[in-house]
Specification:
heterodimer; A: mainly beta; seven-stranded mixed sheet; about 50% strand; globular; B: mainly beta
Chain lengths: ~110, ~110
């Protein structure tokens, strides 16, 4: 079992650009949640996908959007990047039956 | 609003010196309390889930306990490889499906040989 995998591991973008991050959930999991973690802070919930629909959303602007595919994998898109978007982006997968969430290794995004 | 407060922010222990990390929470109906370990630049690693007051779980040198207002992560005879940030999170509500996790800022543990 490969667990939750994220790509890429590191990314450097310029202000105003757009970025797409990818996540493959743990085998058997159908729910994918995305979190943003700033340095020295706990992860903050961005949104959750289930059955290819955004089911819940945290306090993040519309510049953050996502998608879930039929194989349960997911993408996080961020438009018009700001310096403040620099963070570790974490994907967590879980099953709708069992609430335990398992995280990927994260994507470190740096906006310059 | 659901909140999680962890203390202390940082803890430095000598190898073998046991201690406890605290996680205080306020939540509208606790569904579960989670402990994770996070190494620098990596994703959180799942440790425990606790569901009801009085519940305890153990894994190697770690033991997690839960009351109605807080959880403790007890570390017995720690080793340098236990050095990491320990995150506490709560999941609230009993709506269908998974509600999001609300995290504390973590406790940064350093164990010195």
């Amino acid at each position: 079992d490969a667990g939750v995998t994220q790509s890429p591991t590191h990314l450097i973008k310029t202000r105003g650009q757009q970025v797409t991050l990818r996540c493959s959930p743990k085998s058997g999991h159908d729910t994918v949640s995305w979190y943003q973690q700033a340095l020295g802070q706990g992860p903050q919930f961005i949104f959750q996908y289930y059955e290819e629909e955004e089911r819940q959303r945290g306090n993040f602007p519309d510049r953050f959007s996502g998608h879930q595919f039929p194989n349960y994998s997911s993408e996080l898109n961020v438009n018009a990047l700001l310096l403040g978007d620099s963070a570790l982006y974490l994907c967590a997968s879980s099953s709708d039956v069992n609430t335990e969430a398992f995280f990927g290794q994260g994507t470190r995004l740096t906006v310059v | 609003e659901d909140q999680v407060t962890q203390s202390p922010e940082a803890l430095r222990l000598q190898e073998g010196e046991s201690s406890s990390l605290n996680c205080s929470y306020t939540v509208s109906g606790l569904r579960g309390l989670f402990w994770y370990r996070q190494d620098p630049g990596k994703g959180p690693e799942f440790l425990f889930t606790l569901y009801s007051a009085g519940e305890e779980k153990e894994k190697e040198r770690l033991k997690a306990t839960l009351t109605k207002k807080e959880s403790f992560l007890h570390i017995t005879a720690p080793k340098p490889e236990d050095s990491a940030t320990y995150l506490c999170a709560v999941q609230a509500g009993w709506d269908s499906g998974n509600t999001p996790l609300v995290f504390g800022k973590g406790t940064r543990l350093s164990v010195i040989a």
